[in-house]
Amino acid sequence: MAVIFYAPKVHYICEDTKAETCPCSQPIYNTSIFTNTITMEWNLICDKKWLANLTQTLFQVGTLLGSVLFGMASDRFGRKKPLLVAVVLQLVTSTLSAYAPNYWTFTLFRVLIGVSVGGVMVTSFVLLMEFIGNKYRHVISALYQVPFNLGHMLLPFCAYFVRDYSDFLLVTSLPSAILLCYFCLVPESARWLIAVKKTDEAIVILERVAKINNRQINVRSEVEAYERTLTGNNQKGNISDLFRTPNIRKNIICMSFNWMTCSYCFYGVSQYVGHLSGNVFINVAASASVSLLGSFVSIPLLKIAGRKTIVIVFNFICALCLITLIFVPSGVFSVVLACTGVVSSFIVFVVVYLYCSELFPTVVRNAAIGFSSMMARVGSMLAPFVIDGGDIAYWIPPLGFAILPVLACWVTFFLPETKDCALLTTIEEGEVFGKKPKDVETK
């Protein structure tokens, strides 16, 4: 989200023409809002304007790579070590980006920051879920998004007081140092330790957890009983298993399209809000605030409504707001509509995390979330270039962002409901799940 402030829309006049024309060899920038941005620093205007969006797209490429690489590393080396590597990489590269001497060095650092962010997100979410019981998993999966919302809300406050992009990036990188406390505070995943036969290490961690939670329980006997349930279960799945059978293939296509849509809309419209008329700091703060509201609203929604219903309804609301935005003049109401679109897409984002984990069997669950997350990055890569369509016609960005939620509404009708359903284990269960009884009998 920092791109809103280090690469905002800027106005300039050419020294020779005294107007905002292209080409322009000697631009004079308007520094009334931002004293310096990457656009001003490296003259990313006219035929170089696309380079500012390329930086954000490559950042998302880095996030995609980080999700895949650190996801594989966390399966092999445990959750804690890859998380710590990602944290250090995030702190180092985000700090260095503030001192990048040229555009391409800056972009390289943004890619590496993306890799680290992808690693932190994947490993921390998995680690958290593996310590949470089924009863509160839907609550914690929603609350997991809250720190992201708070960081989003802090960005406009930082940018308001720090108007130079280099200082801004330095200020926003420093909080990563807090995460170094993970070296001391974060334990390894007990589930992973049990899975790789490091039972004694898992028992030590769980005994400490039981003591902190004031639970009187024989941890060793519980762990040994759990291990016996795993004996003989050697079936493993991979990404190819998501496409081998027709029902699971249909589910992963529909689910990954939803992930791509909500990421495309959330990141794109959040950035688009910064281009609307009015105070950019207030606009972004409002957008971030409603996203925080969306995280909390999703908790009771998940309790009372089905996953499928929530996804369809809020995709429709998002699309409706964006289409309406085409016919509304720029002003307070346009910001309200855009913010409503942002919060709707974010609620979908929160829900699909849980929906995806419930829809696919254990043997391919990580593969399903990983593939869906990759598609989400594809959506966020495309979003910055849709915003640039506003230079051609004002209605292109809202219409461009509205199309995918409309399609997502239709696509979601092909998914089964998962609320209150037991988690699936095998490929066979996943293939039968959601089918009509007569379809199963015919098989």
Q: Your description of this structure?
A:
The protein is an all-alpha fold and 443 residues long. Helices cover 69% and strands 1% of the residues. The chain has 20 helices and 2 strands. The chain has a two-stranded antiparallel ribbon with strand order 1-2. The mean pLDDT is 86.
CATH superfamily of one domain: MFS general substrate transporter like domains
CA(first)-CA(last) distance: 49 Å
Unreliable spans = none
Structural class: mainly alpha
Describe the main β-sheet briefly.
2 strands, antiparallel
Roughly what fraction of the amino acids lie in strands? under 5%
Q: Can you tell me the CATH class of one domain?
A: Mainly Alpha
- The coarse overall form would be globular
* Helix content range: 55-70%
Major β-sheet strand ordering: 1-2
Number of distinct beta strands: 2
Q: How many H/I helical runs?
A: 20
Quote the average pLDDT.
86
Pfam families: Sugar_tr
Protein name: Organic cation transporter protein
GO molecular function: transmembrane transporter activity
Subcellular location: Membrane
